[in-house]
Each structure stands twice: as C-alpha cells, then as structure tokens.
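haha ok so turns out i had the wrong file open the whole time. this is the CORRECT one, sorry everyone. sequence first:
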Amino acid sequence: MTSNSPEPTCSILLLAGGRGQRMGGQDKGLVHWHGEPLIAHLHRKVRALSDDLIISCNRNLESYALYADQLVHDDEGDFPGPLAGIRAGLKAARHSHLLVLPCDVPRITAELIDSMRNTAFQNPTLPLMLRQGDHWEPLLCIIPVALGGAFESAWAQGERSPGRVMRGLNATALQCPEDDPRLANLNTVELLNQARNVSE
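then structure:
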C-alpha cells in the first residue's frame, strides 16, 4: 500500500521499546486509550502511508507483530533509549527515508504527518525534526537512511541523544505551535487518565 502523495514512500518506525518507567513499568504502546492500545491509534494513522511499517519493541513481540511489517529491537539490553531503536529502524528500513513517531502521540494528525513528509523532501539529504515553540521534538522526525552510518558513529562515540545527532547533521525544522495538542505525549498514567474523556 502506498500513499497518494507525490513524495517518495518512507519507511515508518513506531517507537515502543522503552522501559515504561512513567507508566509504572507497563509496556506503553499496549496501554489502552479510547478502547485501543496506543500503538493501534498510530497504526491506523500511518498504515496507508507505507508498505514498510516497523515497530521498535523489546517485549510483547506477538502483540506488536499484529501492527507491523517488521519488528526490530535494541541490540543492547537494559533499554538503552530511543536512539537504539532509531538505529535499528535505519538498518531495517526498505525505503530511502525513515519517518519516526513515538507510540504515545495518538493525537498526531494526518495533516501534520503530510507536512513532515512534504518538508523533509524539500531537503532530502538532511534529517527533519519537529519543533514545538523553542523545543526540538527528536522522536518526531524523518531521517535519510543514507545517514545511518553517522548515527552508528555517534553511538560508538557514546552519544545517546537522537536530537544531538540530528542537530549535528544540520537537521531542518518543521515549526509547530507551543503546546501543540497534536504532539501531546500521553506518557504517564496521569496524562492518560486526564485524556480519557477527550476525543481523539
């Protein structure tokens, strides 16, 4: 399945490999919101955009396999952070670019995802990150797969921040308003409970 958009198809990586500390150790992508796991909300919004939907997960693989074309996992134990998942996604990606989204932004819109893709392909050799006010959002990004070697080099040098890696690669920004509700991270039990009565 491919997008009707003229831009090249991206591989898509949904990040669900964290420890879930803010969720009391629960597997965040499988926590329910509006009657479905968080991962299902993201899956529904991106499924039609790519024939290469990747999920980074480190547990509950059978559950996540229902929502993905490929599963990847960290190559080091003890949940080393999102950069590990991004590295794995870049290695597995079948297309020239990797669109990355965390599993805890179920309010992201198709329009914003389209804007990310349109903006990224204006400068197709550079990473793109969302910016919310003055704050970079490095887990909402598009990365040229050709930069995988740069990510590996940064990792080998001890870097663990995807944002620093991408800023070092002259990332472009797609600016969003401060406190943009489309980017609300439902990454704690309290935030999920607050959001249960708010429509998607």
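The chain has one domain: 11-195.
again sry for the mixup
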